[in-house]
Amino acid sequence: MTSNAQAPRNVIFNGDCIDVMRSFDDGTVDFILTDPPYVTRYRDRQGRKVANDDNGRWLRPAFAEMHRVLKDGGFCVSFYGWNKIDLFMDAWKAAGFRVVGHLVFRKRYASSARFLRYEHEQAYLLAKGNPIRPARPIPDVLDFPYTGNRLHPTQKPIEALVPLIEAFTQPGDLVLDPFSGSGSTLAAAQQLGRDWTGIELDNGHYHTARRRLASQRHHRAAA
Fold first, then answer.
1. Is 201's pLDDT higher than 90?
2. What's the CATH number where 30 sits?
3. Domain range for 157
4. Is the dihedral of CA 142, 17, 176, 44 positive or negative?
5. Which pLDDT does position 46 carry in this prediction?
6. How many domains does the chain have?
7. 3-state DSSP: the chain helix, strand, coil percent, rounded to 5?
8. Which of the ends of the chain has fewer CB neighbours closer than 10 A, N or C?
């Protein structure tokens, strides 16, 4: 591979993120924003599942690769399943990430109701090395509009991701999402003028994300 291919920009890969990231050079990514499987065997009301949500074998090697490809002083924001936090925290710390913040995304609806009505999502802010503190830190509680999950069973709203990318990147920086699903992170990055790279294991979601990004580019060019 050429060095260009090892730091790909504005492309989505259909494959296993561990294998794909192994082809990237060290320290070529400015920011990672990702929503990995929560290891909860999730199934939505339509019966849709999330690939690799039935095991945690991928956690340690995936985050080890993310840490390697992230620039020193860079940040990673990772959503996680609250009832599997022990697995996620183990993987983050084993990879070398430092936990420097926690984010809560408040919903106006309950995604499920058991012992409580679950009306939020959550993510950790992870750092590689000693990053510079942002001039204007964003709140650690953000709104989470409902997407309807039309494109993916756990689709994240672009509106909740934009503030994170704005806070931790500059125009032209490279944003990576190794679990890109329907492409919400990539669409948010593209909307803000950042370069992006996505990786998605599921072939159907890969094609959804490609169409979504192409449509967004077309609308921006026509505007």
1. yes
2. 3.40.50.150
3. 15-169
4. negative
5. 83
6. 1
7. 35, 25, 40
8. C
